[in-house]
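Lab notebook: predicted structure, single chain.

Context: the supervisor wants predicted structures on file for every construct in the current expression panel, including those that have not yet been purified. This is the next one on the list. No modifications to the sequence; it matches the entry in the shared construct table.
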Amino acid sequence: MTLYNFTLLQDREKIDLLYEQGVYVGKRKIGNASVILYQLEGFYAEVFYYTYRRHIKLISCFAGTARLDPYLAEINVGHLV
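Prediction complete. Output recorded below exactly as produced.
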């Protein structure tokens, strides 16, 4: 699945694909939205929910690592030392 092909899917198809094949990376809050980040093959998808995992507000996709910073701050690596 390419990023382009993913963007052509309907939201329900995107969510199903992310749940089945995506790798959960992390979550964060922006205002009243919960944002869940998944990695799928060569790109990332952020799913914005009004109510946690109930009402999708937006699905935003990107390649590269520039937008990962808010999630990296939440990863606990203390046990790896």
